[in-house]
Amino acid sequence: MAETHNQVVRVWKDPNCGCCNDWIAYLKREGFQVEIADEGNNVARASLGIPRQYGSCHTASVGAYALEGHVPADEIKRLLRQAPNARGLAVPGMPVGSPGMDGPAYGGRNDPYDVLLIQKNGTSEVYRSYR
After folding, report:
1. What is the distance between the alpha carbons of residues 118 and 127, in angstroms, rounded to a whole number?
2. Dihedral pair phi/psi, residue 13, rounded to 5°
């Protein structure tokens, strides 16, 4: 049974983005409550302080943190548990094999990617690598 989370994940995305919808469905399966804003994510990304170089197709917030891109639920849970003094997490681009980018259309392909911890000053460090 999926763990239940009290904090809502608010997602800003394009209304026509299928992989964003797949990521949202994945978060719900992982026990997160999700609110959706189908208005694009550029304004939300900027207002949450995520530098453009970490951009992806959707931006989210949970608690005091920003999330950018196809961040795995385990890393969101760890972020909330550890509560670092940081801006949030990002998976730049749209790596195949990340949550929401792992459907049948991708033929089981898994590209390596990093989940980055974005610091308050805009720098980043690898939070976890997926290989």
Report:
1. 9
2. -155, 170
Regarding beta strands 8-13 and 58-62, do their DSSP bridges make them parallel or antiparallel, or are they unpaired?
antiparallel
45-98: per-residue pLDDT in tens?
A: 999 999 999 999 999 999 999 999 999 999 999 999 999 999 999 999 999 999
Closest CA to 120 of 94, 95, 74, 88: 88
pTM: 0.94
- Sign for the pseudo-dihedral over CA of 8, 79, 48, 37: negative
What residue type is 22 in one-letter code?
A: D
Q: Give me the CATH code for the 8-130 domain, please.
A: 3.40.30.10
Give Cβ neighbours of residue 118 (< 8 Å, ≥ 6 apart).
50, 51, 54, 66, 68, 86, 87, 88, 89, 90, 124
Query: How remote is the C-alpha of 128 from its chain's centroid?
Result: 13
Q: Interior CA angle at 74 toward 71 and 78, to 5°?
A: 100
Comparing CA positions, the residue from 59, 23, 56, 62 lying closest to residue 43 is 59
Could you give the CA distance from residue 30 to residue 88 in angstroms, rounded to a whole number?
A: 19
